[in-house]
Amino acid sequence: MMQYQPRNDWLARARDKIRAAGPPTLPVTGDAIDDVRSRRVLDLATRIGERTLASGASANDVTVSILRVTDAYGLRPVSVDVTYTSINVSYHRGDDHEPLTMLRVVRKRVTDFTALQSLLELIDAISKGESLDSARERYATITHTPRPYRDLIVTLANGLLTIGVCMLMGAGLLIGAIAFVAAALVSVVQRLLGRWAVPSFFSQAAGGLVVTATAMGVTALAANDVWRFAEMRPSIIVSAGIVLMLSGMSVVGSAQDAIDGFYLTAAGRVFEVMILTMGIIAGILLGLSIGQRAGYAVLVTSAQQPFGTVAQQLIGVAIIATMYGIGNYAGFRTVLGCLAMGVVGWGAYLLALHVGLGQATASGFGALVGSFLSMLVARRLRLPALALTTACIVPLVPGSLVFRGLLEVVEAEGAATGMITGAATLVGAAGVGLALAAGTSLGAFMGRPVRDTLTRAVRLRRR
Fold first, then answer.
1. Are 422 and 409 within 8 A, CB to CB?
2. Domains of the chain, residue spans
3. Whole-prediction pTM
4. What distances in angstroms separate CA 300 from CA 237, 406, 410, one per listed residue?
5. Among 136, 181, 347, 372, which is most buried by a count of CB atoms within 10 Å?
6. Do the Cβ atoms of 93 and 30 come closer than 8 Å?
7. Using H for helix, E for strand and C for coil, what is the string for 136-169?
8. Residue 398: CA count within 13 A, CB half-sphere
């Protein structure tokens, strides 16, 4: 005979089916690890995070790197707060002890892909069980290892990058040689200003002034019928210089931070990009104004710059991506990866243009394809994904659009029609930049789960 169940018992069962089991949040308990070891682990983790953030890595990657280190050595739970200029790591040691917190400020930002890859390999080794003492010694070795290239090599790489831009635009060898000299001067001037601790805004302005002054010099020679200078397009020199100075900006990191939810860090990166870009614009405007007053600004046309043949474009893109890698201290394997991703991204861009998409949309599509493939192959080939992704979008930087817009503003001389035309061109350049950021973000967002799925599938197959 069925026993009667009280009504309250049925209600309790119904509530159990609806409510989640357990409390809303899990209790937080700290592991029993001595203070000295905890401090050494946190110190190593924050130092690794600082170096990876200074190299341009996204805030999410920095957070994951720190948590992998602390988790490998038994520090749980750990909270990580990453902003654009600082890293705060706190280890909760239980209710009976005060939290252990460390803060590091990121003072100097130098993109070094060789050091970044070494740090990633160190994190993998720590996750696989490397001792704390060995990891600290290895980190010290990484930080004290000289960069793979001297300043002269980096200067030459920057110059060759502008030659790649000139080839991309179908320019001749002479204009490429002049752009090379201008880029080398920009590198030397900016390095010297950096040693004097001059703010980056003025350093970028000085670079913009150097390339514009070089273009004005070519214009002056052409006006005086000197040799073959009348056949040149001096605006290519400025466009190449803009690509060079914009190539080192943290567009990829800012886009990834925004999509990962690190809005404060993303805002800091975006604001830095804006300030540095405004520095370039200020230098170029100053140079154009000086050239106009001197009477040598007529030959610099604001017409859209045509590209070279497809073969010239691919060779130029290969040079740009390769020299970008060398200019940021990438190793040989990483340089080859940069070359491949640069060509792939530009190929996707040309394909998008062929089917009738606009320049901004095509640029975003090229960035998306390059970023997606970079996320897939970087871990497999043990290369920094940041290097591959950035090398993909550098050839797509709208240097010629930026210069055209500025030139149209200067040539307008206050006329409303000219000012509107120049502003529209600059808005178009900004649209290309936003498309590159959006394509990079979407490619990384799509690539991460696919990469993780493929990694799990490979592991299961090996088992």
1. yes
2. 35-144, 151-459
3. 0.84
4. 11, 12, 11
5. 372
6. yes
7. HHHHHHHHHCCCCCCHHHHHHHHHHHHHHHHHHC
8. 28
Closest Cα partner for 41 from 100, 82, 95, 107? 100
Q: Rounded CA gap, 63 and 70, in Å? A: 11
> 249-254, long-range: CB within 8 Å, 24+ apart, which pairs?
249/273, 249/276, 249/277, 250/56, 251/390, 251/393, 251/433, 251/436, 251/437, 251/440, 252/56, 252/58, 252/371, 252/386, 252/389, 252/390, 252/393, 252/440, 253/56, 253/57, 253/58, 253/59, 253/386, 254/437
407: Cβ contacts below 8 Å, ≥ 6 apart: 235, 288, 300, 302, 422
Q: Give the tokens for residue 130.
A: 């490397």
For 428, other C-beta atoms within 10 Å of its C-beta total 18
* Structure-block tokens of residue 172: 């001749």
pLDDT 10s digits, 241-289: 888 888 766 667 777 787 778 888 888 888 888 888 888 888 988 888 8
The neighbouring-strand residues paired with 103 are 88
The total of other beta-carbon atoms located within 10 Å of residue 60's CB is 19
Structure tokens at 434: 């936003």
CB atoms inside a 10 Å sphere around CB 224: 10
Average pLDDT across the chain, whole number:
84
- The residue with tokens 């948590």 is 67
Between CA 288 and CA 296, with CA 290 as vertex, the angle to 5 degrees is: 75
How far CA 238 is from CA of 110, 126, 409, in Å, comes to: 25, 46, 16
Cβ pair 391, 341 in contact under 8 A: yes
E-state strands within 348-393? none
